[in-house]
Amino acid sequence: MTEEGQSPARVVVVDDQTVVREGIVMLLGLLPGIEVVGSAGDGDEAVRLVAELAPDVVLMDLRMPRCDGVEATRRIRAEHPGTQVVVLTTFADDESLFPALRAGARGYLTKDAGGDEIVRAVRSVLSGDAGLAPSIQRRLLERLSDPEPQPAAPIQAPDGLTTRETEVLLLIADGLSNQEIARKLHVSTATVKTHINNLFAKTGLKDRAQAVRYAYAKGLVRPPTG
User: Where is the Response regulatory domain (predicted)?
Assistant: First the structure.
């Protein structure tokens, strides 16, 4: 797998499920050219470990409490550019894939990847290439071949709401819970609560039902027809 004399890649594993995390660590311990130097259960812990250990690569899960994998990837790439990130997740949908790549991940694998595929991805990102599963490469090519969608007209935010507060309001009107909004926007639930408190304070709203009526009244949401 590795060239003779090549140092093993120093890897940190990040996954919020203890059994899964320990299983990945055990698997990597059996692979040539990989040295696991640490593991973390959430994004905040991952960022701290990277600062402490300066690993070559982080194998990053996406959906985790407190700080998710997208935000952790963004922070790691901004604060520690010498460390590459390879996403290792159950999810291969566009809403997981593209935010992770935009945040700076150089590799993207699903958890059904074999040991050989993980080693190839790690070595690829260390050599400056992308470490993408074949299915992910196909998805990217399909996305690039699709015609560019026309940009939607910008929403005029009422009552001094920021763009993100307006976005949260629209998701409330769609019936999403705080946890669902957090996953949709790739932020923490605490951040969602802050946005909701701010938009309630600016608009004088007291609850989610009033927020829904407000969104309709301001023309941000159109009532269903038919």
Answer: 10-126
pTM over 0.90: no
Q: Which helix (H) or strand (E) holds 179?
A: helix 178-185
Give me the phi and psi of 2, to 5 degrees please: -115, 155
CA atoms of 106 and 121, how far apart (whole Å): 9
Using left for φ > 0, alpha for ψ between -120 and 50, and beta otherwise, residue 170 falls in alpha
Model pLDDT for residues 54-79, shown as the tens digit of each residue:
999 999 999 888 889 999 999 999 99
What amino acid is encoded at 124 in this protein? S
Q: Compute the C-alpha angle 30/25/187, nearest 5°.
A: 145
Dihedral angle over CA of 40, 46, 49, 51, nearest 10: 180
d(CA 3, CA 66) in angstroms, rounded, equals 39
CA angle 100, 103, 108 (to 5 degrees): 35
CA-wise closest residue to 62 among 77, 50, 74: 74
Choice between 2 and 189, residue whose per-residue pLDDT is larger = 189
- The 8 Å CB, 24+ separation contacts for 106-111 are 106/130, 106/131, 107/131, 107/132, 108/132, 108/133, 108/136, 109/133, 109/136, 110/135, 110/136, 111/20
Residues 66 and 81 sit within 8 Å (Cβ to Cβ): no
* CA dist., res. 103 & res. 71, Å (int): 7
pLDDT bracket for residue 147 (50, 70, 90): low
Scan for tokens 């969608």, then name that residue.
149
What is the pLDDT, as a whole number, of residue 1? 42
